Amino acid sequence: MSVKLIADSGSTKCDWCLVDNKKKNYTTTIGLSPYFLSTSEVEDVLQKEVVPLSAKKQPGEIWFYGTGMGDLKNVKNLTATFKKLFPNAEVHVSNDMLGAAVSACGDSKGVVSILGTGSSSCYYNGKKIVKSRFGIGYILGDEGSGSYFGKKVIQHFLYDIFDADLKHKFEEKFHTERNELIENVYRKPMANRYLASFTMFLAENRGHYMIENIIEDGINDFIHNHLYKFSESWNMPVHFVGSVANGFRDVIANLCDAAGLELGKIVHKPLDNLIDYHCARR
């Protein structure tokens, strides 16, 4: 079996593994989103943090699944960068939605959703994505995502909706105020990642009715705006992938049951399943 370099990248972080027979070498870098990093910045990350993984043995295959790779131009740019650094490798670059589908379904059919920093969904026929509802970004959409939930947390704080207890906990945890929040959201780069960082406040304060309402509303918005748009959602499992899906799996299970949807797998990190999938194909 040739050495394989396999990666799953969101907009916030990218998980990597170099597989040589049964030996696995892992690392994590920032997400290689073409919307936040230039080609030269991507190359710099790869050169400093990924190339050292293969210091002893070069990969013969590269399987990269990442956000922004639904655009052919981005695929060509990243493929060229990989070929520059790993000239002997066979390079495969696909979007993160396909990576989520493969990790959750393998060769089976299913409706698959990503709930991470952003959100998106698709119908996968066991070989390829047939229908998709890609996210429209943290400003216009991304219901049920980290950036969506983080925005709700900040709104509740700035609008003074939180009760005294939650307001105190917010201030104690984040040590921030209105002007700094506005500055980071509207004037600094990578606002989606900044917003998503506030999702932890929801996870840490489960049980409070305001917190539960935010989570339920966000997951409901996603189900109604995405899963209800697939006719396949009514006759096959719906799977969820990502850190937010994993963190709020109980809410997802309850709402899918209430909606009459069959819940399939909830996958926290796709990488291990992708490793198993590609290593089974020699």
TrEMBL record:
Coiled coil: none annotated. Keywords: Kinase, Transferase. GO terms for molecular function: kinase activity. The keyword Hydrolase does not apply. It holds the Pfam family BcrAD_BadFG. SUPFAM superfamilies: Actin-like ATPase domain. Residues 8-204 form the ATPase BadF/BadG/BcrA/BcrD type domain. PANTHER family: N-ACETYL-D-GLUCOSAMINE KINASE. This is N-acetylglucosamine kinase. It comes from Haoranjiania flava.
